[in-house]
Specification:
- The protein is mainly alpha-helical and about 70 residues long.
- It has 4 helices and no strands.
- Helix 2 packs antiparallel against helix 3.
- The longest helix is centred in the middle third of the chain and has 17 residues.
- The model has no long low-confidence stretch (mean pLDDT about 85).
Length: about 70
C-alpha cells in the first residue's frame, strides 16, 4: 500500500493530511475500487495534489503548527 515515502516523493510535506490520504486509500481498497498498487498510488497522488494546491488560512497554519509541537 501507499507509504509516507510515496507521498513525500509527490512533493507533499509530512503532516496530518497524510492520515487522511491513507484512510481514503484504505477505504477505497476495502470497497474494491482499487485493483492494485498502481491504482492506490494514483488515488493518493490525486488527493495529495489537492492538498498541495489548497491554500491554508493563517488559523489553519497555527493549528497545524500547534498539533505538530504537541
Amino acid at each position: 500500500s501507499v507509504s509516507g515515502h510515496d507521498l513525500h516523493a509527490c512533493g507533499l510535506e509530512p503532516g496530518p493530511h497524510y492520515q487522511k490520504i491513507f484512510r481514503a486509500v484504505l477505504n477505497a481498497k476495502l470497497d474494491g475500487k482499487l485493483a492494485d498498487k498502481h491504482a492506490e498510488f494514483h488515488l493518493a497522488r490525486r488527493i495529495a495534489d489537492g492538498y498541495k494546491r489548497a491554500p491554508r488560512s493563517a488559523a489553519r497554519l497555527r493549528k497545524d503548527r500547534n498539533n505538530a509541537s504537541s
